[in-house]
Design a protein that fits this description.
By secondary structure, this protein is of the alpha+beta class. About 30% of the residues lie in helices and about 20% in strands.
């Protein structure tokens, strides 16, 4: 078979995606709430560049978010970014190898801002000011998509000069929202849900002093505390992975007990200050692993509603952290997670052993007389989980003084009409009181005496 001669330029096969296909695939797999969180993350990275360190002071820095059925806007005073960054890095799809890194970044994947802008609508503006430059860009997505050969965005204006601190920051505006986005942005339920997500996932930065305004409401960080004091101490374990490199991953695990709250119980996973998993009670953090090992962890139920665990991962190079690109879950294949996970299981088991003992104590003596519960309430105070430093072993007084005679709980069932009849006859208002009253009557008739 003879070969058909072709010019050199015709030896290439065009594999470039269409812009419409690229944009559609880019935005498909990220929930709308997560796209908003990505933009907040970018603001926080700007704050980190201004105030570096693992535990910076963000007081005086603020982020403002406004959304409704007509549009979206986010603005901050977190340093802005210059023309070179905008031209060569910020709007590239993915993070170029030469892009400047931010120590302890939470927006390292290079897709968050672009994905959010295309996710929201068909027109967007970006305005940014540093102390030496001011620039802006306006993108009509419909027009940009039709120009298949041009993957560039154009600056609307660029100014050099000296700009006051009050002008420094970034502002993003999105209009002509996608219909499904417009409906959600107009929903009060969606807004309440989103504001709670921001409070939860950005709780540590709010605690550092960052002000976040959401639709005129000043957000406060969610509560994550563990009780300690007296004979009750949480487990605290700290270690480093890749500590022979210039970017070790520092890991801190804190596990203990708090107030009984089925919605707040579970594990919290935090990467460079960003909460990735919140109150997680799934197999991802070891729950329901009984079948996998002899001393595994049972499936969560409300007996464990006092459990609180937090694992903090901190690294200058955020690529080493065990999170996925949407920061909605874990990358369990990472070395740091594989080294951390077994330790979390050990601490979960220790705390669960205590909670089982506490449950038995309450069952045996009643909530008011349980020596463990009395001691827990009397001796401990709740403390923000970030403030615990180790190492420490989870412990409690296993033989507290019994505050009264041992009791045994009696349970039985009878027809409701009979119970109601006895309530009337005995002058009590509950089935429990009927049981207690009838027991006391029979006990006295048998000549019994209180011990």
């Amino acid at each position: 078979m003879s070969r058909i001669p072709m010019p050199n330029e015709e030896l290439h096969i065009d594999a470039m995606p269409t812009k419409a296909f690229f944009v559609d695939m880019l935005v498909r797999d990220i929930p709308l709430e997560r796209a908003v969180l990505d933009l907040v993350d970018n603001c926080i990275d700007g704050a980190k560049r201004m105030r570096p360190g693992e535990e910076p002071d963000f007081h005086g820095l603020n982020v403002s978010v406004h959304l409704d059925g007509d549009g979206f806007e986010i603005a901050d005073n977190c340093g802005g970014f210059d023309v070179e960054t905008a031209r060569n890095y910020a709007f590239r799809f993915g993070r170029p190898e030469k892009a400047a890194s931010t120590d302890y970044s939470i927006g390292q994947f290079g897709v968050g801002m672009k994905r959010a802008l295309f996710k929201f609508g068909r027109y967007f503006e970006v305005h940014s000011t540093t102390t030496k430059q001011r620039w802006s860009m306006h993108v009509d997505v419909d027009t940009w998509e039709r120009d298949e050969g041009n993957w560039y965005f154009d600056f609307a204006n660029v100014e050099e000069g000296q700009f006051a601190d009050a002008e420094v920051g970034t502002r993003i505006i999105v209009k002509r929202l996608r219909p499904e986005v417009s409906r959600q942005f107009a929903s009060e339920h969606f807004k309440r849900q989103l504001s709670e997500m921001i409070r939860s996932h950005q709780r540590q930065f709010l605690a550092f002093g960052l002000a976040i305004d959401f639709g005129g409401l000043h957000l406060t960080n969610t509560d994550l505390r563990i009780r300690s004091g007296g004979q009750f101490n949480p487990a605290i374990e700290e270690f480093a992975v890749d500590d022979d490199t210039d970017a070790p991953v520092n890991v801190r695990i804190v596990a203990g007990i708090s107030e009984s709250s089925p919605t707040a119980a579970g594990w919290y996973v935090i990467c460079n200050g960003r909460v990735i998993l919140s109150a997680d009670r799934s197999e991802s953090t070891g729950w329901n692993s009984v079948a996998e090992q002899k001393d595994g962890i049972p499936k969560y139920h409300n007996q464990y509603a006092r459990f609180r665990g937090a694992v903090f991962f901190s690294c200058r190079d955020s690529k080493k952290l065990p999170w996925n690109t949407t920061k909605t879950g874990l990358d369990a294949s990472t070395t740091v997670w594989q080294l951390t996970f077994p330790k979390m299981l050990d601490h979960t088991r220790t705390v669960i052993n205590f909670l089982n003992a506490l449950d038995n104590s309450i069952e045996e003596y009643g909530a008011k007389a349980s020596p463990l519960l009395v001691a827990l309430n009397k001796e401990t105070l709740a403390k923000e989980v970030e403030k615990f430093r180790g190492p420490a072993t989870f412990s409690w007084n296993r033989t507290p003084q019994v505050p009264g005679p041992k009791t045994i709980k009696i349970q039985y069932s009878r027809e409701e009409t009979k119970i109601q009849s006895l309530m009337t006859a005995l002058g009590v208002t509950s089935a429990k009181a009927v049981g207690e009253k009838t027991f006391d009557i029979i006990f006295e008739e048998q000549g019994g005496e209180d011990q």
